[in-house]
Amino acid sequence: MEFEVSTSERVDIVDITEQVNERVFTDAETCTVFVPHTTAGVVVNENESGLLADLKTALSTLVPEGDDYQHDQLDDNADAHLRAMLLGSHVTIPVESGDLALGTWQSVLFVDCDGPRTRRVLVK
Q1: Would you give the end-to-end CA distance of the chain in angstroms?
Q2: Residue 114's domain spans which residues?
């Protein structure tokens, strides 16, 4: 199963917990969320505005835009590729009674590093 996520900024974070949970089978034991893009990732963490701003700052500090990357000669988005590699392209979450077994403050967060775009998210 899959769905689309639209972003509005170059680096944008979207809570996709509800969309993922809607696609979980009641008899599933685990759920894998996969982002089939090389400049976006998915993580499990708290959806709190300050933390999300900190994540954007951390990504730009760890991998600054326009830092004379070799790949920029081709697509001018090397920073987005490198940031996505740090985030990861998938997460696997336990399922209990047909729902994601997330902790109290945990959410499934889609992170676009090369937006704005419309992206696909796969749920298995």
Answers
A1: 7
A2: 2-123
